[in-house]
Amino acid sequence: MLFLAIVRSGAAAEPLAAAGITEPFGDVILGASVAGIVSSRKVEEGESIREGDVIVELDNRLEALELDRRKLVLNAKEKEYKDTQTLFKSSKGVSQAELEKAELEFKVAEVDHQMAAEQLRRRLLIAPFSGTVAELYLDPGEATQAYQPLVHLVDTRRGFFVSTSKRVRRSG
After folding, report:
1. Which band of pLDDT confidence, cut at 50, 70 and 90, is reported for residue 163?
2. Positive or negative CA dihedral for 125, 41, 27, 159?
3. How far is 157 from 51, CA to CA, in rounded Å?
4. Pairing outcome for strands 131-136 and 151-167
């Protein structure tokens, strides 16, 4: 590609010829942080996507079930803690230590639920910026290892011009 620009040097303008290439502003190869089986591709090669869009989804049935299980445990521990708290305040039918134990179990259940939600979230490959899907490396049903390349994403809305330039002298 040839690029021609006018560069001012003092009062006179001199043409500057530069041969070079353009490169996208953002250019990344994305992979999931966990191993798994590709369950679906949410986009096609050449498609424009926005930051935050899901590009590839890994099989997540076990993680979804684990999240449901952790939610049930969380709800049970929350009820147990609230009931223990009510009993402690109203009749002192339970000790301070029992109340603290129920609170701790509830808080641990909250963290376990958050961890299960994060494990489920890691089954999604999400676009870190808006751009164009240049290449998809695996099809649904294929296995991937953690950090194995899955998608090549480029941001061609902005770019860099890479060149070595030389001055062109005017004749005449």
Report:
1. confident
2. negative
3. 13
4. antiparallel
**3-class SS at 153?**
strand
Please state the pTM of the whole predicted model.
0.74
Q: Does residue 147 surpass a pLDDT of 90?
A: yes
Domains of the chain and CATH, by start: 60-122 (1.10.287)
Residue 144 CB-density burial (10 A; 0-12 exposed, 13-18 middle, 19+ buried): buried
Q: How would DSSP label each residue in 91-126?
A: H--S-HHHHHHHHHHHHHHHHHHHHHHHHHHTTEEE
The 10s digit of each residue's pLDDT in 83-124 is 999 999 998 888 999 999 999 999 999 999 999 999 999 999
Closest CA to 147 of 30, 36, 24, 64: 30
Q: What is the pLDDT of residue 2?
A: 45
* Number of CB atoms found within 10 A of residue 32's CB: 22
Do residues 137 and 45 make contact, with C-beta atoms less than 8 angstroms apart? no
| Beta-strand pair 36-41/54-58 | antiparallel
